[in-house]
């Protein structure tokens, strides 16, 4: 059985009774495990994390729409976080025994079902689209729900599935496939925020750095430690050890060293194994040599 | 359910029909998985790898004795590998959800059963004994089957379980508990065997090096590469990255660098994660942050 992860983001984070019903809808779907959910009142948004095989996940996402669409009216929705839809974003992430191609196919299938069952326009994003204007979620969501009707009539912004106009209360949805994100911070042996900011600028894709790195410099005020705060969007193509080594080199330029690093939340085992392989200069090594994999064959 | 590994070594590697019956005996035990087995004709010895919870493993080992004892006569056994018994060595190794203490208790339980059912003297070794003279398998096995009767009457060599004299055809058994072994080789950017030998002497426990390292220098003749060939007997206390870094430092003393390293056979995932944590200077990290562990909770 394949394991795919989906992390639907729903535009409701203030009415606990609605969040409870959303959670109940996905929890009640056979073959799906709810790993986590959290709501943010200031964002007025909830994020759920589910895992399962493709078919059960599709059922769970459709059950989520079934509950969310009648319960959420974006015309009255206020919150700090940008959004275009009641069910705003649905990424599918390959975890085990599933490829990116499987997740792209699943995203297309779910997008078509959402459009036809609920009359909601759907944009595909990241790996699920070949359209460069739709690769980045931020680009698709720009203008938000309030600007959606105008955006949809502008050149290049017809949806991938569904009607050419927003759903009156539920707006549109952005559905796609992506690699697991790794939230990774590197703390520096300095309280100089400018150094952290320069390093972040050097390593991030948007200003000339590594392809799958987003980064910014921040200050941990309580510890007086400058931090390079990083999102790694594809750890297979931009491995964590390359980011670490590059930060160390850039820091040395300012006479600064690395104090420590930390993973926020979850990290795929393969990202850690790749780092071990790199530093230990392991050759002729494969995942079949990991004892736990052998046990689970 | 706990996962314990046991790797019984049996003194028969030339008669395939006997090996088949040994394999069938453990395979037929409910709750046990045979991961691997191999026979070596020059050693005249077979090694089986089984996993399961404690109680099924005990049944499998007793079934193995049931088949091996009548089939193997050590008085007629010849082979390059040292041995004292028909079933020569039985280590129990904690893998998942089991502690070393569990494996020590299992070793004692199995040793008592083997002694009483088959009338075979049993020595406990490694973690299963507090007797320093019996910690190392090589010390217990010294003198082999041929010297066993004399050894058993010498001071300090009464067995831990069973009769004070060898079993006529099956000799004695050595049963114990140990950490998983990691077979790990580091290849040097040189064809100087003396450098590999000096490094091996520097890092191994027996000549003043790291506590859980056995090492020797060998020559990969076909590649003209000198190799430090290592057995790591406790990767939690002597981690693989410390061995790698120490070899790199010692090699630098001779103007030599590390070409590559390799794991032979299986390695516990935790050994690789520990290396990643070390080189990435990860702090506040725990196994619950590994995505796959979360999925299997």
Describe the protein in words.
The structure is a homodimer of 297-residue chains. The first copy, chain A, has 297 residues and is an alpha+beta fold. The first copy, chain A, contains nine helices and eleven strands. In chain A, strands 1, 2, 3, 4, 5, 6 and 7 form a seven-stranded mixed sheet that branches. Chain A has a four-stranded antiparallel sheet with strand order 9-10-8-11. At the A-B interface, α7, β11, α8 and α9 of A face α7, β11, α8 and α9 of B.
User: What is the gyration radius of chain A calculated from CA atoms?
Assistant: 21 Å
Seen as an oligomer or otherwise, the chain set is: homodimer
Unreliable spans of chain A are none
The chain pair forming the largest interface, with residue counts per chain, is: A-B, 39 and 39 residues
- Round the mean pLDDT of chain A to the nearest integer and report it: 95
Main beta sheet of chain A: strand number and arrangement?
7 strands, mixed
Structural class estimated from helices and strands of chain A: alpha+beta
Distance between the termini of chain A: 12 Å
The proportion of residues in beta strands of chain A is 15-25%
Order of helices and strands of chain A: EEHEEHEHEHHEEHEEHEHH
Give the overall silhouette of chain A: globular
- The number of distinct helices of chain A, counting runs of at least 4 residues, comes to 9
Number of strands of chain A: 11
- Report helical residue fraction of chain A: 25-40%
């Amino acid at each position: 059985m394949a394991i795919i992860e989906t992390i639907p983001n729903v535009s409701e984070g203030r009415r606990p009774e609605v969040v409870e019903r959303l959670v109940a809808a996905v929890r009640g779907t056979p073959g799906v495990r709810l790993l986590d959910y959290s709501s943010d009142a200031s964002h007025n948004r909830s994020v759920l994390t589910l895992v399962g095989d493709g078919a059960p996940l599709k059922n769970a996402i459709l059950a989520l729409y079934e509950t969310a669409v009648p319960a959420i009216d974006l015309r009255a929705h206020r919150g700090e976080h940008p959004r275009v839809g009641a069910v705003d974003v649905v990424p599918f992430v390959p975890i085990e025994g599933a490829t990116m191609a499987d997740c792209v196919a699943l995203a297309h299938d779910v997008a078509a079902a959402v459009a036809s069952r609920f009359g909601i326009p759907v944009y595909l994003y990241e790996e699920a689209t070949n359209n460069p204007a739709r690769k980045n979620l931020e680009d698709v969501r720009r203008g938000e729900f309030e600007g959606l009707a105008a955006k949809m009539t502008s050149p290049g912004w017809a949806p991938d599935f569904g009607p050419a106009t927003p759903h009156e209360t539920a707006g549109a949805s952005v559905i796609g496939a992506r690699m697991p994100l790794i939230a990774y911070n590197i703390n520096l042996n300095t309280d100089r925020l400018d150094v952290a900011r320069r390093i972040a600028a050097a390593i991030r894709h948007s200003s000339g750095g590594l392809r799958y790195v987003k980064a910014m410099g921040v200050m941990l005020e309580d510890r007086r430690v400058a931090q390079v705060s990083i999102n790694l969007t594809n750890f297979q193509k931009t491995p964590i050890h390359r980011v670490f080594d590059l930060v160390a080199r850039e820091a040395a330029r300012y006479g600064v060293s690395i104090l420590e690093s930390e993973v926020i939340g979850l990290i795929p085992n393969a990202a850690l194994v790749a780092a071990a392989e790199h530093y230990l200069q392991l050759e002729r090594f494969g995942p079949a040599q990991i004892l736990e994999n052998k046990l689970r064959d």
